[in-house]
Amino acid sequence: MGRTVLLNADKARNLKFSTNQLIELEDALGRSMMEMGDGLRFADLRTMLFVGLKWEDSELTPEKTGDIMDTIMEKEGVEYLSKQVGTAVKKAFSGKAQPPSA
Predict the structure, then answer these.
(1) How far is CA 82 from CA 58, 79, 100, in A?
(2) In sequence order, what are the residues at sequence separation of 6 or more whose Cβ sits closer than 8 angstroms to the Cβ of residue 83?
(3) Which pLDDT score is estimated for 1?
(4) Most buried of 4, 26, 41, 92 (most Cβ within 10 A)?
(5) ∠ CA 24-86-101 to the nearest 5 degrees?
(6) Dihedral, 60, 64, 66, 71 alpha carbons, nearest 10
(7) What is the pLDDT of residues 12-71, one digit of tens each?
């Protein structure tokens, strides 16, 4: 599980972004991964979390993901959530495939 990031959520959850998940994320947000740095909305963060978690939970919905976000933010704070999502995105690009420099 070298590309997964553990989340302390409603239960231990594993967040990851494969190539297909990154493409799905870009399509859902309407912008490329290179454009996602600043200006991230809560809706964007929920979408990122949903796409990154559903590989492990086939019954996950965006609404359930919002509830998971609430639990994470109550337990750990929004900074923790943002950091873990960011780490999972970085891990998606680890190894030989690196994103182009901005």
Answers:
(1) 23, 5, 22
(2) none
(3) 52
(4) 92
(5) 80
(6) -110
(7) 999 999 999 999 999 998 888 777 766 778 899 999 999 999 999 999 999 999 999 999
Q: Which of 41, 46, 56, 2 is nearest to 25 (CA)?
A: 46
Token representation of residue 12: 């231990």
Has residue 100 got a pLDDT over 90? Answer: no
Whole-angstrom distance, CA of residue 14 vs CA of residue 98: 22
Instruction: Mark out the alpha helices in the chain (DSSP H runs).
Output: 19-29, 42-53, 62-75, 78-92
- How far is CA 10 from each of CA 57, 67, 100, 102, rounded to the nearest angstrom? 13, 9, 35, 36
* 12: enclosing H helix or E strand: strand 12-15
The interaxial angle of helices 42-53 and 19-29, nearest 10 deg, is 150
DSSP code, position 85: H
